[in-house]
Each structure stands twice: as C-alpha cells, then as structure tokens.
Fold this sequence. Notes:
Blueprint (H helix, E strand, L loop, with lengths): L1 H5 L1 H13 L12 E5 L2 H14 L7 E2 L14 E7 L5 H12 L3 E6 L2 H10 L3 E3 L11 H14 L6 H19 L5 H9 L3 E7 H19 L4 E5 L14 H7 E7 L5 H14 L6 E5 L5 H23 L7 H11 L1
Parallel strand pairs: 1-2, 1-3, 3-4, 4-5, 6-7, 6-8, 8-9
Helix pairs in contact: 2-6, 2-7, 3-6, 3-9, 4-5, 7-12, 8-12, 9-12
Amino acid sequence: xxxxxxxxxxxxxxxxxxxxxxxxxxxxxxxxxxxxxxxxxxxxxxxxxxxxxxxxxxxxxxxxxxxxxxxxxxxxxxxxxxxxxxxxxxxxxxxxxxxxxxxxxxxxxxxxxxxxxxxxxxxxxxxxxxxxxxxxxxxxxxxxxxxxxxxxxxxxxxxxxxxxxxxxxxxxxxxxxxxxxxxxxxxxxxxxxxxxxxxxxxxxxxxxxxxxxxxxxxxxxxxxxxxxxxxxxxxxxxxxxxxxxxxxxxxxxxxxxxxxxxxxxxxxxxxxxxxxxxxxxxxxxxxxxxxxxxxxxxxxxxxxxxxxxxxxxxxxxxxxxxxxxxxxxxxxxx
Length: 334
C-alpha cells in the first residue's frame, strides 16, 4: 500500500494518457449536465471532478452515491459510470437506469459487469491499469479520465497542463514523504490513539477532508470524521460546548489548508482553531502545495494517504484487507 501511494504521480499520467487515446466518445453537442456515478474509492473521483471543475464548467456536476440516477438524467446528460472492480452493484443499478433514459455514458472500470454492459450500450470504456491493489489506491485512475474527457469535449479548458503540473507536485511531495521521519510519520505520532477529525475549507478542502477520513477508516481501521468550513461554523461547532473532559482524551483535529480559500474562510479557520484547542487533544494544520486547484487537492490526497499508512504501521495494522466490507457484500449477495 505504501508503494501504491508512492506511485500516484505515475498513476495520474497513465490515466491521462489512456483517456486522451480513448475512441468513441459521445457527442458534446447539447450536453446540459454531468453526473458521476460511483461509490467509495471510485465515487471520490467524482467529488474531485466537481471540486476541480465545478466553478469552470458551463454545466452542473452532480455526484449521486447510491442505486438511482437523478431524475434529470437523460439524453442531454454526460454520465461517467465509475467502478474500480466493474461490479459495484449501486453503480451498475444507477448506470443502467441512466442508459435506459438515453444518457451519454462513459465507463471507467477494470472490467467486470460494467465493461460488459458498456458493450451493450455502445459506451466507451477507460480501462483501469493493472497492479493497483485496492480501489482506494486508485484515485488517480478514476479521477483523471473524466477531466481529460471533458477537455476533449470542449467543456473544460487547460486541464491537461494542470494534470502535468499536478504530477510534478506529487513527485516533489513523494520525496518528502518517503524519507525517514517524514512529516506524515510525525503527524501520525501526534494523532496516536486518538480519533482524527478532519476539517477542510471550501469544495477543495471538503473533498480532501473526506479522503483523509476514508483513508483513516479503511487503512488504519479507526473511526474518523470530516466536515467543511464555513458550513460547520453554522452547526457542528456548537456541539463542542460540552464534555471537554472527554473529548480532550479521544479526538485530534486536523485542519487541511490551501491557497484557494475564500478570505472569510481563512478567518473562520483561525476562530475554529482557537475554539477547538481547548476541547481536543491537539490541533494540527497541514498546508497544501502546488500551482492549481487540482495540484493542491492531489497534494493533500497524497499526504493524507501517507499519514493513514504511517499510523497503520505504527499501530501494527495491515492497511490492505477490509474484511467488514467483504462481509457486507457477501451478506447482500446472499
């Protein structure tokens, strides 16, 4: 898993090249909406797409995570059906209903039922490169192709240059993380046996925080929670008014920062840090690096992946297997 995380830069480049060479793309004419269908490690690729392109695309992006496609999905909707295994039942269900309504579909999968259905639908398939051990280790493979395809369809300008820059930033960050006593190992030691709460600012920070939370859950096998500033300053912050004697023993707060934050969001971060300092074991701030929204988001992703893996290593936990997820899938099949 450490090796897979360290290879994110190359994974991003391979995925971009694969999408750039894809034949049979649907027409861009008349597209009025984009939907990304996917769950878990596949679904977060849609969240990344929305965060990176949402303010630049001329059409809305939605990322429903469940068995059903939104009611508006139809012939004027571009649908990315993303399933690392190709057999995710929620994605198969939602994509099938989208196909029945005549949506323009692009499949991203390693094979499985999704690839078979794509043949029936006449939808192109972006294959996921072999050798990625787990869906959560393949964020570049599932997140980058939709960006490239949107650029090819004329809906998103300049993303190829940003992808190249992001890959270079990932290499720089990797060099910092693979040495001895890295910032990731140090932060993992600070977290220790507490439960990490992760806050990010705006759409970029929200996706990064959700990624960190999910990696703590799956890699480290610990409870973790995430939220977004400014939204949490309208509700969740009130919940820290009681039980400080308990919360100081069990929670650590991680603040994920980036240079694209709204000025008022920056002010709220400072207030949150001051308020929370008295009710958690520690407040730890992480600064993103990179020249673009995509670069900084992937930089935070890589850093979070390494922190979760370092914490797993320090706790003697194998980050790979997720037996509880296998049990749930087996029970549903039965």
